[in-house]
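lol ok so funny story. i was supposed to be doing the assay writeup but got distracted and ended up predicting the structure for this chain instead. priorities right. anyway since i did it might as well share w the group, maybe its usefull for someone
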Amino acid sequence: MKHTEVFEKIIEEQLARIERIKQNQTPVDYTSLDKIIIGVMGGDGIGPTITAHARRVLEEIMKEEVQTGKVEFRTIDGCTIENRHAAGKAIPDDVLEEIKKCHVLLKGPTTTPRKGDKWANVESANVAMRKELDLFANVRPVKVPELGIDWTFFRENTECLYAMGSSGIHVTDDLAVDFRVITTPGTERIARLAFEYARRNGKKKVTIVTKANVVKATDGKFLDVCKAVAKEYPDIETDDWYIDIMTAKLLDEKRRREFEVFILPNLYGDILTDEAAELQGGVGTAGSANLGTRYAMFEAIHGSAPRMVEEGRAAYADPSSVIRAGAMLLSHIGYQKHGEKLLEAIETCTIKERKIVVTGRPDGATGAEMADYILEKVRG
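and the output, tada:
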């Protein structure tokens, strides 16, 4: 295929996608469902281990709902790097079919092949899942009360560089070109979700993060659309920052207390939320929600850590992040009290008390011990 044909194909696909976004705006009402099906996918590396701990915690909290048939936990196998390599796809067809039978998904980390790996150069399973299920919003809370930090990040999930990461072309041996996509409806819905969250939760400020002074077309559009949406919320203060200085201001002890809710394109959101998670105790403590109108996926924000498995340390992997994601899942499907109680228990165990600490090595607690500790606090 000629390079101009590749570009033409991308444009046609994105224009068609814009029309699908416009037609798909009605979210699921979980209260109207006879049964909510929660899929549980272990993933790769330490994923199956920490996800099993999270499932055990959730199943105990939701014991009554499971017994009455209101909630079902369903195991989804097959999204390992070995199976994705064999299928030559980011998500094997049979796995995707099973995922779509669920309403929400609790997912462990998956391995993304790098150039030179022994695996097929398939797209990131996360990126593919976000596109297949149209999970347009990645929501990541970070809270450290003693530092005055109470942030919620709304990262657009289906556009920007990541969404086009497997569509780049090598024009010659000397020239490689990647593509970046930002759309008006795609930006409108992430911006509106962030502002609605701010209004419902009593937040007074929303911050838009771009590099619109340099990346003028795509970042410029993202900023302009967010500002247009902001006009619908005059009760909420809106400001905007460039991504480079924003990374510095998260470390500014005085300035960072002013921030509450952030809206970011995909790449910047990935970088900034990892930095923010370090202030909370590391990426192993942070969970995230990936939200769409029909489906939702909840996961840890860290990777699959294959080295820990290779070194026999999987039992010492910290499950706090995926358990935190589980708390977000419970709140999302309408069980806010369960979710809040679990989140409070996690914060007690990982921030306030810290009677045990998971270090990832035998000098610390095991993941099972951390899950038991959290359950002890949930039970009261």
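The chain has a mean pLDDT of 93. The longest helix spans residues 3-23.
back to the writeup now i swear
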